[in-house]
Design a protein that fits this description.
The complex is a heterotetramer of chains A (329), B (282), C (438) and D (193).
Chain A lengths: L5 E3 L10 H23 L1 H25 L9 H11 L7 H14 L14 H12 L1 H4 L2 E2 L12 E2 L2 H12 L10 H6 L11 H13 L6 H20 L7 H6 L3 H8 L10 H21 L6 H18 L13
Antiparallel strand pairs in A: 2-3
Helix pairs in contact in A: 1-2, 1-3, 1-9, 2-3, 2-4, 3-4, 3-5, 4-5, 5-14, 9-12, 10-12, 10-13, 13-14
Chain B lengths: L1 H24 L6 H9 L13 H10 L11 H12 L9 E5 L13 E3 L4 H5 L17 H5 L5 E3 L5 E3 L9 H5 L5 E5 L4 E3 L7 H7 L9 H5 L4 E4 L2 E4 L19 E3 L18 H5 L1
Antiparallel strand pairs in B: 1-5, 3-4, 6-9, 7-8
Chain D lengths: L1 H13 L10 H6 L4 H30 L8 H23 L1 H7 L2 H4 L4 H12 L4 H30 L10 H15 L9
């Protein structure tokens, strides 16, 4: 019996909530979106998903080996990064883009900082932005959805956000598509990266995460709310030039970003107040980049920029502690 | 050409005048020796001198408040440099290194309970005085290694701290952080040590450690002047230890070790033979 | 009915059903009683008996040393067979008086009975001190110290802690059900000592029978009963004060700084005995429970009973123990063996088998923020723990590490199973050491 | 008014001196270990930039242009900036010794800081009016401060991370600076010019 007894500091019970469980639930929450993307974009989408996920896991294993640290692929974080990365890539991405993305995400985005929990930026977004800047052609070649079994061949198409950007630049006026076809956008029947398409599937996943209390409502609400308010103001000022808030909401990567990328715990603030500020910043930057920037979509950049501001937000958003009404004795 | 010279000269003159006035107005007195001493220090901010950091020590030395030979990490070179700056003579202190007086790793010593929690010796010590059955043995959780500013402490795979005598500068950080006082400072020239820290009776020690000192007196009988036994624990007398190594073979518990023949078993430093021999002679 | 509470905290499964309905049973006397001199916060008492002495139940065997200290009494009549260091709940052998009971359990005749109506506050307080009364919730802070607020800190409210928010424990719950008269009598004495009228009993809403009974019996005495939301750590002093009065104890201060004195209901019951019967604190109610015990029970034990004896009375061990916890699962202390005695602060004995608790190694913090959202003090536990890991004392101090009440919420919820409380406790030690130095 | 605002936004975000123009990298990497020092450095740079742009603007238009000495621009500007920095250094040393100590060698280095000279030269190149030049300098300084503070916050956090040995110190700082600059690319095209 000696030596079988454990001694530890209190408390002696645990909620059972573990990191790998959190990661697993987020992966489950992404399932609807991945399935929808496979439905609309077929085998290429599946290929991107597989390469990114397996690539991320492989690079994670490799770097743990190289650094002689404990193997961490079992916690599911690498697989999650892989899925998120895939959802941020166009379905037509060549295999080497996906693989390179996986390497950037895991090696530069995460492992050089010491692995899970230490990366200041969202690894999947780091990879996406590096790819977008390095390979603009491959990263902005989109295909129109060709639902499984429809027999339609994949053809090149522009994303709704891309199309209005070009149209506004050329004519100063919004094209037709900014005011109609919202039903299709909502279901995901449009061109875009894997995870940008189906607002419905992403919302389902996001609500699941909220219900499971994996994420809190603060970040998504303030992110999406800010986008609606800011884009709404512009729309009211000039409806002919600026698309309405609903268009902003269901096209592009807003839902994916708000529920799955901005809520990435590691790279976002830890306090509720911080999360609200973070979401606000993300929303504001997203609209500004979408309406005035050089890129049609601003979610990734907005989140990365706010990731950079996270340490400062945390620093200045410490909650007021109990009993700090008077000076210390 | 002339305008060019005049213009530039004019600008320069105005700037110079402003600076001149400012230099008077915002003058701050600095002891140049303080900066020079700071320059000469190794900059590890280890605290071996007793000051919070190198700049504090530099100030103290320049003020004459502190002795110039307190910087152990810097060694004799630094001391000479400081002495030269201050224009005084300073005697280098005898180099000392830290020694972990324990060989009872997880395989050789027993634990009285299984510890769950923070990997820190001081935290573990608060739970029923630490998991090791031996009240003085190394807990092996690495607080000393984490505290060492010079990366001189190695934690072996089986949970024992071993101090690299080449890297150790004698700053005593590890000594102050160890909750079990198992690390002591000893002259670098003394390479033979009794690697045990248990003051329990021999019979008790045998129960929990395969390599603990049982206070059997054999070492003292072999080399009387070099050993001293107090509460069942042998210690080397560092002033007269020339022949201390002669008792190593005689020790029934194999707890006397001569670092000039390498590091204790289990250490990755072990292969580096005579790790301290030549240095100690120098 | 809207329930009062505080901000933060969480609700772990309360696991009280095994003992909540079981009446308090008296645990028979063991072969020998081990009564340590250190049973309270503050200086340990001075042992004043020697081997061979015959002692009576209630006789002083160790005298108080200093203001924050209380005397220790023999818990039964018998012979002192040893005065030596014995295993102590703190984890190391500490001085203790070992008594071999003579079986008669005879009270010391010198003990006097009093009528509280005849005495003034100061006299009552002396009786409390003489009886060695300490906080029975587990903190064991000497009661007379709390009852001696300096004049510049007027007290207006007495709060009785009947919350018992620790999972598994039901001792206070049973006490309120079975000994409500003693509790109320104790409250009346406490009010007299403090010279105040307002007294509130806070009870968590998961004890509806206790709330009902106390409400009915307190009404004639003008004592309020406040039902509180079921949330841990509702019974922590600061959180209880916040919930009941809406006041906050200033950081670094004491409850008396906001005009409140908090006492456990068990303490109130003990004070009643101390005054009316003159009987010192020699027994208490403790819950013996957990999956590692055959028949979980609420026991009335005499101070100094070895844990093994209590386990035996409860039908013995169920399987092999993996953790022996004195107190509740959130704040209790693990024990080296069952040979240690129950002391005045022992509110429960909890036995876990291997597998009943997590041995998962700590992973890296994923900054999920859960620890921050549950912290009842609104600290950032993970930040402080990071500083603790790197031994950055100043940073930890400026993050208010010293305000941590070590309730364990953060560690309970942490998905990375980081030992947050232990880290914070560790760095608190570092901060105190630094303050002593300067 | 709008054009002034655009100049400001452009200088702060789109054409951030550090993260988009890659000027002033030396103090950016050197004095960004702590947020407090980063703020201090940022303030010093804002001050130096604003004053320098005022002075250089006058020198350019009232002295160099008038006497046809445009070719002396660089040397004249450096002379002015160098003395300004000396002045700032003296003031900081007197008023805030702590900040002076943590800024260390980087304070005199503002002297040769390409960012300050860059502001002066660029506002002449773009033929900004006096007000525009001041706003531009202010924006550049704010942008520098913003980049410094963001970066310092990140570095403070990274200091607590178990970065692999080979990446400790400057290596990880450079990786992070790269990623930060990447994020700032998102502002590209936000304001033309």
């Amino acid at each position: 019996m000696d030596n079988q007894l454990y001694l530890s500091s209190s408390p002696h019970i645990h909620s059972g909530e573990t990191t790998d469980k959190v990661m697993r639930l987020v992966i489950y929450a992404l399932l609807p979106a991945t399935l929808v993307s496979i439905y609309f974009f077929g085998l290429p989408a599946l290929g991107v998903l597989l390469i990114c996920t397996l690539g991320c896991v492989a690079f994670e294993a490799l770097s743990c080996n190289l650094m002689k640290r404990e193997q961490t692929i079992a916690d599911g974080s690498a697989a999650l990064t892989g899925i998120l990365l895939a959802l941020n890539l166009p379905p037509s991405s060549p295999w080497w883009i996906s693989l390179l993305g996986a390497a950037i995400a895991i090696l530069i985005g995460k492992q050089v900082y010491g692995g899970l929990g230490y990366n200041p930026f969202n690894p999947a977004l780091v990879a996406r932005v590096v790819l977008l800047i390095s390979f603009p052609v491959q990263m902005t070649t989109w295909t129109a959805p060709a639902p499984l079994g429809s027999g339609v061949d994949a053809v090149t198409a522009a994303t709704p956000l891309g199309e209005i950007k070009t149209a506004v630049m050329l004519t100063g006026k919004l094209p037709e598509l900014a005011t109609s076809g919202f039903g299709d956008y909502f279901l995901g029947n449009m061109a875009g990266s894997l995870g940008e398409v189906s607002a419905l599937a992403l919302l389902l996943g996001g609500l699941f995460l909220l219900y499971k209390k994996i994420i809190s409502w603060h970040t998504p609400l303030s992110f999406i709310g800010t986008v609606i308010v800011v884009s709404g103001i512009f729309w009211l000022v000039d409806p002919a030039k600026y698309p309405n808030p609903l268009f902003h909401l269901i096209t592009g990567g807003l839902i994916l970003g708000a529920f799955f990328m901005a809520t990435d715990m590691v790279s976002s603030p830890v306090t509720y107040k911080g999360m609200l500020i973070f979401g606000f910043g993300c929303g504001l930057l997203t609209v500004l980049i979408r309406l005035f920037g050089g890129y049609p979509e601003g979610v990734s950049f907005a989140i990365l920029l706010m990731n950079a501001a996270t340490p400062l937000i945390d620093r200045y958003c410490r909650p007021k502690i109990y009993g700090q009404v008077e000076q210390k004795a | 050409m002339l305008t060019a010279i005049l213009c530039l000269g004019g600008i320069g003159l105005i700037a110079a005048a402003t600076l001149g006035v400012a230099a008077k107005k915002f003058a701050v007195e600095v002891d140049p020796r303080e900066a020079a001493v700071l320059e000469a220090l190794p900059g590890a901010n280890c605290g071996a001198c007793g000051e919070p950091g190198c700049s504090g020590y530099a100030k103290g030395v320049a003020d004459g408040r502190l002795a110039p030979n307190l910087c152990t990490p810097g060694g004799s070179a630094t001391i000479e440099a400081i002495a030269a700056i201050l224009g005084i003579e300073a005697v280098a202190a005898e180099p000392r290194v830290a020694v972990v007086l324990c060989q009872g790793d997880n395989e050789k010593a027993t634990e009285k309970y299984r510890y769950l929690g923070m990997a820190d010796c001081n935290a573990a010590q608060k739970l029923a005085d630490g998991p090791k059955t031996c009240p003085g043995g190394c807990l092996g959780l690495g607080s000393c290694a984490a505290a060492c500013p010079f990366d001189a402490i190695e934690m072996t795979a089986s949970g024992l701290a071993v101090i690299n005598r080449d890297k150790c500068t004698g700053c005593e950080k590890c000594v102050s952080v160890c909750p079990r006082q198992v690390i002591v400072m000893a002259p670098k020239a003394s390479t033979t040590h009794v690697l045990c820290n248990s003051r329990d009776k021999g019979a008790q020690v045998r129960k929990y450690c395969q390599v603990g000192c049982i206070g059997c007196n054999i070492c003292k009988k072999t080399v009387p002047e070099a050993y001293q036994i107090e509460s069942f624990l042998a210690r080397v007398e560092y002033e007269q230890d020339e022949n201390a190594a002669a008792a190593i073979e005689k020790c029934p518990m194999k707890c006397i070790h001569d670092f000039s023949t390498g590091y204790p078993e289990g250490s990755r430093l072990g292969s580096k033979k005579a790790a301290s021999g030549e240095n100690a002679a120098a | 009915m809207s329930l009062k509470t505080f901000a933060g905290g969480l609700h772990p499964p309360d696991s009280k059903s095994a003992t909540a309905h079981k009446p308090i049973e008296a645990c028979p006397l063991p072969e020998e009683l081990i009564i340590p001199a250190a049973q309270h916060i503050g200086a340990p008492a001075d042992i004043c008996v020697a081997v061979g002495d015959q002692v009576k139940k209630g006789q002083v065997i160790a005298t108080a040393k200093g203001f924050v200290s209380v005397p220790i009494h023999a818990s039964t009549s018998g012979e002192v067979i040893a005065v030596e260091p014995r295993p102590h709940p703190l984890g190391r052998p500490l001085p203790a008086v070992v008594i071999k009971p003579d079986g008669e359990d005879a009270w010391d005749e010198a003990l006097e009975q009093h009528d509280p109506a005849q005495l003034v506050g100061e006299e009552l307080k002396q009786l409390v001190l003489a009886a060695g009364i300490v906080g029975m919730g587990g903190a064991t802070f000497p009661a007379h110290v709390k009852l001696s607020p300096p004049e510049e800190k007027p007290i207006d409210t007495l709060i009785l802690n009947g919350v018992e928010c620790e999972p598994f424990l039901t001792a206070d719950h049973r006490l309120m059900l079975e000994e409500s008269t003693r509790v109320i009598d104790g409250i009346n004495i406490l009010r007299k000592i403090l010279g105040i009228e307002r007294a509130v009993i806070g009870i968590e809403a998961n004890k509806p029978d206790a709330i009902e009974k106390m409400t009915a019996e307190c009404a004639p005495h003008n004592i309020e009963v406040q039902a509180l939301e079921v949330k841990y750590p509702q019974g922590a002093e600061k959180q209880l004060i916040d919930a009941v009065t809406g006041r906050q104890v200033p950081s670094g201060g004491l409850p008396m700084d906001c005009g409140v004195v908090v006492q456990n209901v068990g303490t109130a019951a003990a004070i009643s005995d101390a005054v009316r019967l003159g009987r010192p604190l020699v027994e208490r109610v403790a819950t013996v429970t957990g999956p590692g015990i055959k028949e979980p029970k609420n026991l009335k034990i005499v101070i100094g009973t070895p844990l093994s004896h209590m386990v035996e009375f409860c039908g013995g061990l169920e399987g092999e123990p993996g953790k022996i916890i004195m107190g509740g699962p959130m704040m209790g202390q693990t024990q080296l063996s069952l040979e240690v005695p129950a002391i005045r602060g022992t509110s429960g004995l909890l036995l876990f088998r291997k597998g009943d608790f997590s041995t998962r190694p700590a992973g890296p913090c994923i900054r999920c923020g859960r620890c921050i959202s549950v912290c009842p003090i609104h600290l950032q536990p993970t930040t402080i723990a990071t500083y603790a890991r790197l031994n950055l004392v100043d940073e930890a101090e400026s993050n208010n590490a010293l305000d941590c009440i070590e309730c364990g919420c953060c560690t309970y919820i942490c998905p990375a199973t980081l030992p947050l409380v232990q880290s914070i406790r560790h760095i608190k030690g570092g901060i105190m050491a630094k303050r002593r130095k300067s | 008014m709008v054009s002034l605002l655009l100049i400001l936004i452009s200088a702060v975000f789109v054409n951030n001196f550090v993260l988009a123009r890659f000027l002033g990298i030396c103090p950016f990497l050197g004095v960004s270990k702590k947020v407090e020092t980063a703020i201090g450095m940022g303030m010093a740079v804002i001050f130096v930039m604003s004053v320098a742009s005022v002075v250089t603007w006058f020198i350019q238009y009232f002295i160099l242009n008038r006497f046809g000495l445009e070719y002396l621009q660089t040397i004249a500007f450096i002379l002015v900036i160098a003395s300004l920095v000396q002045l700032v250094e003296m003031i900081i040393q007197k008023t805030s010794p702590v900040l002076y100590q943590s800024l260390g060698i980087f304070l005199p280095l503002i002297t040769t800081n390409c960012a300050v000279l860059g502001v002066a030269v660029l506002s002449i190149q773009k033929s900004y009016s006096f007000v525009e030049a001041v706003v531009f300098a202010l924006g550049a300084g704010l942008g520098f401060t913003l980049a410094m503070v963001l970066f310092a916050g990140l570095r403070e956090r990274i200091d607590l991370c178990p970065v692999p040995n080979s990446f400790r110190g400057t290596a990880i700082a450079l990786v992070t600076a790269g990623l930060l600059s990447l994020a700032f690319m998102g502002f590209a095209g936000l304001v033309k010019g």
